[in-house]
Specification:
By secondary structure, this protein is of the alpha/beta class. It is about 30% helix and about 25% strand. The structure holds ribose-5-phosphate.
Length: about 230
């Protein structure tokens, strides 16, 4: 089974959690897009759902495939969000934002009664941090904010490069008009402490640590899909 087939397996298993009439948060990324394709087939067969997309990219795909959309202001409380992740640990803590959609993803997941993560086996880790942690920042005061992040990380014994994300020949800009700093910490032994320290930095708009948000992860490997629930 190749990587795409594993993503489809995880997306198929997630679809089983979608019920008629649900208000859905719809994630961003290649795995979430497999979910959108399968969801669109069910919508064409008569399933009634309303989706809130977590990015302009996801919104475009939903419109193209006929998945009905609303804004989060129109549907401020959602039943379920289904989204991908860049890393998942045993407590279902996540790193997200590889595609730059972390802010809207976190807002939408927070507005949802449940969040299910879909991913292939390669995303499951013992300790978060091998994937560079995306940190969304306000362009104003970028250098000061980067220094504040370095100091906060250093207080927790973390070090590593913090790079401004680029795209093509310019700076990558999120749907919200912010920049992303990708932090190469390598290993984040205390993700909860890092999340809380980053939350305290004014120039940080949001970070890619999703803690206590996912209630279930559907992980697909060569042998099929399995579910993970948070270990106590
Ligand atoms: O900003 C992007 C999102 O957090 C994605 O859900 C994450 O990067 C995983 O994407 P993919 O399914 O393409 O690996």
């Amino acid at each position: 089974m190749d990587a795409r087939e594993m993503k489809i397996k995880a997306a198929e298993a997630a679809l089983a959690h979608v019920e008629d009439g649900m208000r859905l948060g719809i994630g961003t990324g290649s795995t979430a897009e497999e979910f959108v394709r399968l969801l669109a087939e069910k919508v064409a067969e008569g399933l009634r759902v309303e989706g809130v997309p977590t990015s302009e990219r996801t919104a475009r795909l939903c419109v193209e495939l006929g998945v009905p959309l609303k804004s989060l202001d129109e549907l401020p409380e959602l039943d379920l969000t289904i989204d991908g992740a860049d890393e998942v640990d045993g407590r279902l803590r996540l790193i997200k934002g590889g595609g730059g959609a972390l802010l809207r993803e976190k807002i939408v997941a927070s507005a949802s009664a449940r969040m299910i993560v879909i991913a292939d086996e390669t995303k499951v880790v013992e300790t978060l941090g091998a994937f560079k942690l995306p940190i969304e920042v306000n362009p104003f005061g970028l250098v000061s904010t980067r220094i504040a992040i370095e100091k906060a990380a250093s207080r927790l014994g973390l070090s590593g490069g913090i790079a401004l994300r680029t795209s093509g020949d310019g700076t990558f800009t999120t749907d919200g008009g912010h920049y992303i700093l990708d932090a190469s910490f390598g290993r984040i032994p205390d993700a909860d402490a890092l999340a809380s320290n980053l939350n305290d930095i004014p120039g940080v708009v949001e970070h890619g640590l999703f803690i206590n948000m996912a209630s279930l992860a559907i992980i697909a490997g060569p042998a099929g899909a399995r579910t993970l629930t948070a270990k106590e």
